[in-house]
Amino acid sequence: MTDPKTPAPKTFHVKSFGCQMNVYDGERMGEMLGAQGLTAADADSADLVVLNTCHIREKAAEKVYSDIGRLARRENGPRPMIAVAGCVAQAEGAEIHRRAPQVDIVVGPQAYHRLPDLVSRASAGGHALDTDMPAASKFDVLPRRARRQGPSAFLTVQEGCDKFCTYCVVPYTRGAEISRAWDQIVDEAKALADGGAREITLLGQNVNAWSDERGRGLHTLIETIALIPGIARIRYTTSHPNDMSDGLIAAHRDIDALMPFLHLPVQSGSDAILKAMNRSHSTASYLKIIDRVRAVRPDIAISGDFIVGFPGESDADFEATLQIVRDVDYAMAYSFKYSPRPGTPAADMDDQIAPGLMDERLQALQALLNEQQHRFNLASVGRTTEILIERDGKRPGQKLGKSPWLQSVIVENGPEAGSLLPVEIVSAAPNSVVGVPVSDRHASGGWHPAQNMARAG
Ligand code: 5AD
Ligand code: SF4
């Protein structure tokens, strides 16, 4: 939109890729644009489209360019104003304008509070770019959360990373670790609860490194948020093994609202690879943490992230990864092929692994992880638990919710979104389980665990 007579946009659409923090940032950008008088619209009709991008792996980063091309060729009217936000914006900056001149605005994750101003600049003609990492936090100037919320809301409490794992772009795109101020977080949690949120997931690249100037840690924050009327459930993600404090582990025993779920990436089961990754923990120290968490909360569901094909990864290193997966027994996990990222130390390491071998390893790892997830789901059959209804299912009356262990639960004839419903889990599939409201169970008169076994197959 380099035409100086471009009208200011009246409608907007934000499309977020990648992690949950991008979802949060995308919501905040939407709220800000809404506060400026713009209204939300579909991607194929909005006057302004914000692509909130992810740079973590090459595939995610390249996706933005095909999206830009599609938007620029919009068939049903004039092309929209295009803004590239998020981590690709931060990593590539002005290079984006060179590669895709159709892009009007480039705005990094620490500067998106200035989006309305950038939109005005782009409307006046020309490109607008802001990839500053300002000392003044964007959180100080973002508007208060919009009132209406879904049942489950994200809340960023910590951002950035100082760990510098050798494969990872996050320390460069999100910057140094910062913790948001206590009052700001608690106020936002209250606003989310007022808006209808029943569950809050506290977000950070190293969320368990959150602390304030009084030395309070994440567990104290969780304890306080748990007291906010309306908040029934708290989760946090993503954690680094080295920041799992005693207090946070104890919180899994002491705070009822803290859900029995821990996403704790290990990345590899080989100490040599962990060293080359600069993870600064060992397989033994990781397993020790898992043991300690399970000692205080035996039913906790453990989740993780894995990278296969890191430079130099031998067959024995990969076998060690399979072994740690067997040792931990994950309820769910994410696994990725190593993707060399420009500017990271690992991209220049010798012994990059051939793509075919990476594919093989990823398949083997995912087969094991899928089997574990299915077994975890099967083991929950027969449990009575409370689920949070999040949305409608495919069939009339069907509802989808989440168990405390973050399983997707399907219920026929469930109550409206936001309800906490006691159910019995009666059958399990690889990616979901089926729940029956406990009230229906009683009504149908009696039940025997063996019935579930039969149904679960
Ligand atoms: N290649 C592949 N996976 C990566 N991750 C981070 N950087 C890379 C990379 N260069 C994975 C890690 C991390 C998750 C968010 O993404 O497993 O925990
Ligand atoms: Fe990336 Fe490592 Fe920081 Fe996680 S801890 S964001 S993997 S550098």
UniProtKB/TrEMBL annotation:
Domain MTTase N-terminal residue range list: 10-124
Binding site for [4Fe-4S] cluster 2: C161, C165, C168
Matching Pfam families: Radical_SAM, UPF0004
InterPro entries per UniProt: Elp3/MiaA/NifB-like_rSAM, Methylthiotransferase, Methylthiotransferase_CS, Methylthiotransferase_N, Methylthiotransferase_N_sf, MiaB_methiolase, rSAM, rSAM_horseshoe
Record-annotated TRAM domain positions: 378-439
Subcellular location(s) of the protein: Cytoplasm
Main location, first listed in the record: cytoplasm
Record keyword Ligase present: no
Swiss-Prot/TrEMBL catalytic activity: N(6)-dimethylallyladenosine(37) in tRNA + (sulfur carrier)-SH + AH2 + 2 S-adenosyl-L-methionine = 2-methylsulfanyl-N(6)-dimethylallyladenosine(37) in tRNA + (sulfur carrier)-H + 5'-deoxyadenosine + L-methionine + A + S-adenosyl-L-homocysteine + 2 H(+)
Cofactor binding remark: Binds 2 [4Fe-4S] clusters. One cluster is coordinated with 3 cysteines and an exchangeable S-adenosyl-L-methionine.
Annotated ranges, domain Radical SAM core: 147-375
EC numbers: 2.8.4.3
Recorded coiled-coil stretches: none
Required cofactor(s): [4Fe-4S] cluster
Binding residue positions for [4Fe-4S] cluster 1: C19, C54, C87
Binding partners and assembly: Monomer.
PANTHER family cross-referenced by the UniProt entry: CDK5 REGULATORY SUBUNIT-ASSOCIATED PROTEIN 1 (PTHR43020), MITOCHONDRIAL TRNA METHYLTHIOTRANSFERASE CDK5RAP1 (PTHR43020:SF2)
Family of this protein: Belongs to the methylthiotransferase family. MiaB subfamily.
Protein name according to UniProt: tRNA-2-methylthio-N(6)-dimethylallyladenosine synthase
Organism: Sphingomonas colocasiae
